[in-house]
Specification:
- This protein is an alpha/beta fold.
- It is 39% helix and 14% strand.
- It is built from six helices and six strands; from the N terminus they run βαβαβαβαβαβα.
- A six-stranded parallel β-sheet has the order 1-6-5-2-3-4.
Amino acid sequence: MLLQRLVPDWYVDSVFQIDLDALWNAGIRGIITDLDNTLVEADRPQATPRLVAWLKHVQDRGFRVVIVSNNTRTRVAAFADPLGIPYIHRARKPMRSAFLKALRMLQLDIPQVVVIGDQLFTDVLGGKRMGLATILVLPLSGKESFGTRINRKLERIVFRWMRRNGWLKWEETR
């Protein structure tokens, strides 16, 4: 059922709240992460010092990381290149091709990878279509493209439906 593919495995306010020990103990070794409004606000060109420290901690812990974004090469490269993090731009999430490419880049199998993102219809659905674990984070900013604003309205409808049907494993704050 399509709606089951929209239910993330975990939900946190930000990447900083992700329990890396729990992921590691669950066998996760790789992270596919969205960029805009997941790691930084969509209009912030580079990582904050706090995010740089978090990403270093993630990698020092042994996780492999790749950024998968629907944004342009210019946007994603300007963010990822200074950090030395590989990326896929114009990913066309939730299509499978970018997730397959990310798995090859990580050199890991599906059970070893988690997808982190702020949108149900791109990040969570894309990850779930591949059988990947997913973590939904609150978007960092309300500044979004027209298409994303439409997705957010649809997300609110889906969240209400999930809540009514007991599918949410957390208190949804959107």
